[in-house]
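Technical annex, item 7. During the second reporting period the consortium partners agreed on a shared format for inverse folding records so that results from different sites could be compared directly. Each record opens with the tokenized structure and is followed by the designed sequence. A conforming record, contributed by the partner at site C, is shown below for reference.
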């Protein structure tokens, strides 16, 4: 297994195999890529682009893909996935970021959710395609990913929502189409609590069965603006890590605003000496790899 730190700030956290930097987040804010890190880019979720071009927002019978539309779970504004100017700019940006870092991990590289997008351009494209609505959406998403693949010379990892059953109907995402272009998948399993690890283990097992490329999962440690009472405990994170690991996934990333928050988590994990010993009974080699990782952190947090 590989273990990674998934960061908002351009700094490497000690004690990980890979370092993923959020160079463009869903607000639209961008920071320069870093040569020794992988780069994470949010594509269609982009508040700034929607602010500049209100007519670019994704449309549906249940309203636009705007933060606050209670019919969906939108935490940001989302651009229509066929918007040609946005696509072109993002492809150029992806190519540049790839050149200046170790590769590109994409987020929100698909339609906003079920029923999207019904803007005039999408309706026109759908009608001309002769395809069913769902197959047309899949074609649009897959074609965009094939264009991304032509621009990315290094590693391309496609993040997906933690929905193993309805991603086709909701986002136009076909996992087998994605597997043709992706070097790996990253399933975002962000939650401010992992109190019920059973569900996350089940999802990890489902994705490992479905996806035809290596599978990473990303867990939430400490986001920008969080306080210590907002975030999962070290015990929860250790438990969910070993339970996901034993499903056979290929790696785990830990999301944090900066290296100091990662270090706080590492220290809290290292301090759970008895708890770590109890987790040894949870499984074989993959569980031991997680526990060995924590052991390797002992010298970092001293
Ligand atoms: Zn549209």
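Designed sequence (site C submission):
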């Amino acid at each position: 297994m590989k273990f990674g730190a998934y960061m908002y700030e351009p700094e490497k956290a000690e004690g990980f195999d890979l370092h993923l930097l959020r160079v463009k987040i869903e607000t639209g804010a961008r920071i320069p890529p870093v040569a020794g890190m992988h780069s994470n880019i949010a594509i269609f979720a982009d508040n700034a682009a929607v602010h500049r071009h209100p007519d670019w927002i994704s449309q549906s019978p249940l309203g636009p893909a705007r933060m606050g539309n209670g019919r969906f779970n939108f935490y940001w504004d989302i651009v229509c996935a066929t918007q040609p100017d946005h696509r072109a700019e993002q492809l150029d940006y992806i190519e540049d970021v790839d050149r200046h870092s170790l590769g590109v991990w994409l987020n929100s590289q698909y339609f906003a959710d079920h029923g999207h997008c019904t803007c005039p351009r999408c309706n026109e494209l759908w009608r001309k395609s002769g395809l069913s609505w769902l197959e047309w959406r899949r074609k649009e998403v897959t074609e965009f990913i094939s264009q991304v693949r032509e621009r990315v010379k290094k590693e391309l990892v496609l993040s997906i929502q933690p929905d193993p059953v309805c991603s086709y109907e909701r986002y136009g995402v076909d996992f087998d189409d994605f597997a043709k272009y992706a070097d790996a998948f990253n399933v975002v399993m962000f939650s401010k609590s992992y109190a019920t690890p059973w569900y996350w283990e089940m999802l990890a097992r489902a994705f490992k069965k479905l996806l035809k490329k290596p599978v990473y999962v990303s867990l939430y440690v400490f986001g920008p603006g969080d306080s210590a009472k907002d975030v999962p405990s070290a015990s929860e994170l250790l438990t969910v890590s070993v339970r996901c690991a034993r499903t056979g996934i290929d790696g785990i990333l830990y999301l944090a605003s900066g290296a100091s928050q990662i270090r706080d988590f590492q220290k809290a994990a290292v301090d759970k000496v008895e708890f770590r010993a109890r987790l040894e009974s949870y499984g074989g080699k993959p569980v031991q790899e997680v526990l060995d990782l924590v052991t390797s952190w002992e010298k970092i947090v001293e």
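The radius of gyration is 19 Å. Residues 58, 80, 82, 117, 119, 121-122 surround zinc ion (CB under 6 Å). All partners now use this format for quarterly exchanges.
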